[in-house]
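Work Package 3 (structural annotation) set out to generate three-dimensional models for the target panel prioritized at the project kickoff. During this period the team completed the workflow that converts sequence records into discrete structure tokens, so that structures can be stored uniformly alongside our sequence database. As a representative example, we reproduce one entry of 633 residues exactly as it appears in the project archive.
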Amino acid sequence: MAEARLILEPEVQEIFKLIDDGKNFLLSGGAGSGKTYSLVQCIRQVLIENLNCTIACMTFTNAAVAEIRSRITDQRLHVGTIHEFLWDLIRPYRSELMDVLIQSLESEDPDSIINPDDDFDPSALKGKEVKYKEYTLVREGIISHDELLIIAHEMFRSHPKLCDIAKDRYKFIFIDEYQDTSASVIEIFLEHFQQGVKRNIVGFFGDAMQSIYDDGVGNLDKYIEKKIVYEVKKEQNRRNPRLVFELANRLRTDNLRQVASLDANAPNMLDGVIIEGEIKFIYTEGPNDQLQQVKDSLGWDFSQSKENKELNLTHNLIAPKAGFPELMLIYDGDKVLEFRDRIKKFIKVRKAPTDFSNFTFEQVIQNLTDTFPADKANLSPTPGMQQFIDLHRDLYERALAEPYEVFRRIYLSKDALVDDKKDDPNGSSKAGSKRDALIRHLFKIQHMVNLYESKKYNEFLKRSEFKIRSIDDKRRLKDLIDELKEMSNSTIGTVIDRADELGICRKDDKLSVFIARNCYVYDRVREVRFAEFKKLYQYLEGYTPFSTQHKIKGAEFDNVLVVLDNGRWSKYNFNYLFEEAGNPSVLERTKKLFYVCSTRSKKSLVVYYRNPSEKALATAIRWFGVAAVSSMD
């Protein structure tokens, strides 16, 4: 056995020393270090050394699941998403599951499952079975991804025996991309699993520097300090040329520094020597955006989206080019809602004494105008708002007639439309996504069509209520899918209704609640052609030459152009990054995002920055080198 371990890479040998001591471990590796390769080596060796054990390997997307399964075929290895793993463990305990669901529905804790229907008594579910599906219908005991995490966390917290059963079943549990795992899932494995008498090994693989999602745990520092987990660092780089990973090293906020791979056959090696690669920092001065001139100067064919990628932080820059401008205008350009926010702020600041609960929006404006006649200017739309209102009189009239109690609660942001979290064309919707229920529902419809077209019939049937019992059923299903495919020019509302009628994608609780609370928004979206949503789908699933900087984590391209433009997103600030000052949390978040972007490149990395300050330019020269920094002017 000792001889067998000698062929393992050094980091995996270190992991097995920890396994021998019965310790949980973390493999930390920078971008392009080959963490998946290490994971596969680790699994194979565990299977060799433990003939009677079963391993669970968890990751986020079905694409990652498929990749691991393609490398290892062994019935003792159970590979799946975290949600599938948790559901498989808790599903046998029907009465306990239902008790936890009912408790959650009755809870006033904002992090618990919110009951969508005030008239519904959760105790009516007693004796029924909890079911886990792609949609949520709590009246029928049906939960989806978000609810599953809440219920699983409580099940393992309150039932130590369940923890022992899980540990007895899986002697080894490996979690890929741990930094994106929710803190509640980490608590299950590193806190709740401490209960009971059984022991197992939990191993984590990932990179804290690539934790760019708000709801991920980010790092395991507190567990490392408590010696619940022991860290092994993987410092080699197998993807990026030397200039790129040396730039990345300057960005890291921890003490992990990457070096050239020891493997002469690594992708970034040529004849045993590390490829130098190319990095450039191009900037412009003045009011004009010269992005197109920059792209032209590079000579890359951006239509080859698998080789050349343009990365933007803001979707607003991409929407017109990618074909979904109307949806973006609804979610990120509604000046009527901005005017409503102006009124809300006025009420709060001036402490308006009136109870507006039974007023329309128009009546609220009139009441405030009568009550505060000297403040008429502050109760009127700004010039920009007025211009929008003049162009959309019907929309404004609709808003004026809305009950204020409903209208004031509408929350709309572009995140709800275009959140990128862990998108995967072969995967399901991801828990934690900021997309609203309407957009998630539309994704389900298009995903169902894609599953059928890609001949993934078992997965299609699992996610729908359609049953195939005969040849006629197969023919009918084909006809139904063909009908949906031909509805591109129909409105979104028509497609939603028809998909529900056909049993391809049911309207669920979350969609119904969204419509009830946001009918002003829904009525706008439902009139947009479904073809525009399909363009959004293709963009977010990576089928266009454009991408945001969030959605390319894990991907790699020959040539990468990073466009540094904050847009109106306050969570990130590239000025902070290059001036090395500003809000610490925004600065850290931006640095991690820039790190992820920079490390996608296998050959050339170009960064485009408009109007940098002298301090920002000095940072660019320090990071990129004076010869790599140039102006387009």
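The chain is about 45% helix and 15% strand.
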